[in-house]
Specification:
Elements lengths: L5 H6 L1 H7 L2 E5 L2 E5 L4 H15 L11 E4 L28 H11 L5 E3 L12 H10 L3 E6 L7 H10 L3 E5 L5 H4 L8 H17 L6 E7 L8 H11 L3 E5 L8 H6 L11 E2 L2 E2 L9 H4 L2 E2 L4 E3 L12 E2 L5 H5 L2 H12 L21 E6 L6
Parallel strand pairs: 3-4, 3-11, 4-5, 5-6, 6-7, 7-8
Antiparallel strand pairs: 1-2, 8-14, 9-10, 11-12, 12-13
Helix pairs in contact: 4-5, 5-6, 6-8
């Protein structure tokens, strides 16, 4: 939703104002927020006005958040800041207390929370409580997993009963050999079991959610295996199969090693050996979708690993104050100016793209309406 163009957003205003409903997608995954309160509707209108006028001081609060439940992972993916051990921030888990402090401040305006960042969310033992807290406040919850943690039906039932809206399960190969070329330390059979257990739990609980997506990151190793992964996803009974372009840690030889040769499967346009840096339509994160790291630090970009533009910390000041703090306003001004860009912008996986989104292919296999 945050990437929505102005014209597309305006078309959704009647449904938002009259029905308290807005439909959008996250990387091609369909999401619908329903029964929105007057405060949530009003905040979305404010956010839309801020977008139109390219405000640096925001009158609305963010309708979406990305929460880092942990920056620890059980795998060692070579292009992930955590998996490659290049992430230098302290490691830890978000506490339930920090999560609820944030939620209690923003539940009147939030319509969705993405519960993942640089780590495996299901390593955080409080994740089902956090999902349930979102559900109780009519807030959409979406998370992404490598699928190696959820291995019992009881665990799967807890996730379904908590009310998770959507779940992305990463499978980057139809065989263990192809899969582990990127998901190092992962077990494909465990991931398949995770997907099957979630579907079984949905059936047992008579629930249509979470909307399940088998998602592949396209690399040079699995680009020819994508049809087989789709067959695997179909057999697992999930709602969607999708694959996205490679775009993490884009600087360095390792990225070149894993990036597929097919131009249609790449995220970026190239001219010779250098990236043809197409200008990003608009950076959305410090304007409408900030990130909260596991220790409660609020930032405008997940790549601000050194906290150069930290807005503040949950519990130390109100979110409203952090949202328009001097550092937040300065970051927005720099992004709008396009001349004095923050250093972490050089790692931006959204600038220089050859297409609008990062998802290259999305195919719905089983609609939740069926």
């Amino acid at each position: 939703m945050s990437w929505m163009k102005t014209g597309e957003a305006l078309m959704k205003v009647p449904s938002l104002c009259l029905q308290g409903k807005v439909s959008f997608d996250f990387d091609g995954i369909p999401l619908t927020a329903k029964g929105l309160s007057f405060k949530k509707r009003l905040n979305l209108v404010k956010v839309g006005i801020d977008k139109i006028f390219r405000s640096n001081v925001e009158s609305g609060l963010p309708p979406l958040l990305q929460m880092e439940l942990t920056n620890i992972c059980n795998l060692h993916c070579p292009l992930c800041p955590t998996g490659s051990n290049s992430l230098k921030r302290p490691k830890g888990f978000m506490s339930e207390e920090t999560f609820l402090k944030m939620l209690n401040e923003l539940d009147q305006v939030l319509i969705g929370i993405y519960l993942f960042c640089f780590g495996e969310p299901f390593l955080n033992k409080n994740i089902t409580k956090m999902i349930a807290a979102c559900t109780a406040r009519n807030i959409i919850s979406l998370t992404s997993t490598n699928g190696n943690c959820i291995q019992t039906l009881d665990e799967a039932v807890m996730i379904v009963e908590a009310g998770l809206t959507a779940l992305i399960i990463a499978i980057d190969g139809s065989t263990q050999e192809i899969y582990q070329s990127y998901r190092r330390g992962g077990d494909l059979e465990k991931v398949k079991r995770c997907a099957s257990l979630i579907e079984e739990a949905k059936s047992r609980c008579k629930s249509k959610t979470p909307y399940t997506v088998i998602r592949s990151v396209v690399t040079s190793d699995n680009v020819d295996d994508l049809p087989e992964i789709e067959k695997l996803a179909t057999g697992l009974g999930v709602n969607m199969f999708s694959y996205k372009s490679l775009g993490c840690l884009v600087k360095g030889e390792k990225f070149n090693e894993y990036e597929p040769a097919k131009k249609s499967m790449r995220r970026f346009d190239y001219s010779g050996s250098s990236t043809d840096r197409n200008k990003l339509t608009e950076c959305i994160f410090p304007f409408r979708q900030p990130i909260i790291f596991w220790d409660g630090t609020v930032v405008g970009c997940e790549y601000d690993h050194n906290l150069d533009y930290a807005f503040g910390k949950i519990g130390e000041k109100s979110f409203a104050d952090m949202w328009n703090s001097p550092r937040a306003v300065e970051l927005r001004k720099n992004i709008h100016s396009k001349h004095s860009r923050a250093g972490f912008c050089s790692q931006c996986p959204y600038e220089g793209r050859s297409r609008e989104g990062t998802a290259l292919y999305c195919k719905e296999l089983n609609s939740i309406e069926k």
